[in-house]
Amino acid sequence: MNVPFILLIILLILMTLIGGQRGTKSFFTLLFNFIIMFIFLILIGARLNPITVTIVGCIIISFTTLFFINGVNIKTVSSLISVAIVVILTMLITYNIGSNSNIQGFSSEQVETTAYLSVYVNLDFTKIIVCEILFGLLGAIIDVSISISSSMNEIYKSDTSITRINLFKSGMSIGKDILGTMTNTLLFAYIGSFMSLIIYFNELHYSLSQIFNGKVFCSEIFQSLCGGIGIILIIPITAFICSKLLFLKLQPKAK
Description:
Elements: H1 3-45, H2 50-70, H3 74-101, H4 111-114, H5 125-158, H6 164-193, H7 195-203, H8 208-212, H9 215-246
Helix pairs in contact: 1-2, 2-3, 2-5, 3-5, 3-9, 5-6, 5-9, 6-9
């Protein structure tokens, strides 16, 4: 029995003990999403358009995460629509910037790693960078979106006199409280994976200018900032869509 399998069993036990039935659902949703992502990575390797594959993959993962755990209701539908919009917007914003910044491909520090590998993979690494950004921010924007829509749903049910504008403002206020911590979470998730390379730079006595201008460093910072853009966008979009759907009378107010 290897270490990853043991850790997986421990994760299942803890999620079941603490989260109950919903925790168990979350665990199997996590496994299912991993399989989905692996399949879509194979499709990208099979020369399908990486951007199209990633967007479809993000929507499917969002669908299973939101509906399987929380059911089909106003808050999950509004979150799914919001996540799909933000994924597309983030792709449109970051694609040209990523192309012009030339951070795609491998850096000089990765020469030894790639020395024995074929470089004729026939993939557009500009698009691959965008795919990394979209997959990287997906979990964060789903989390922010469902937190906002769930809170707005509870406010709507508990206050029968609230107006759509005030409900939207409440959603924005909730989003502002989440924004700072979630941006930090995304930033340190990327930087954490970069720590070993920082130590490597230090051992090679790189100057700060060499580090800041290194392709690998710039790539990590670029992905962190683009992820932050996605988190910022999800707040007003979720607040707007959720307030719209709730006032379409698709769900009656609590009496």
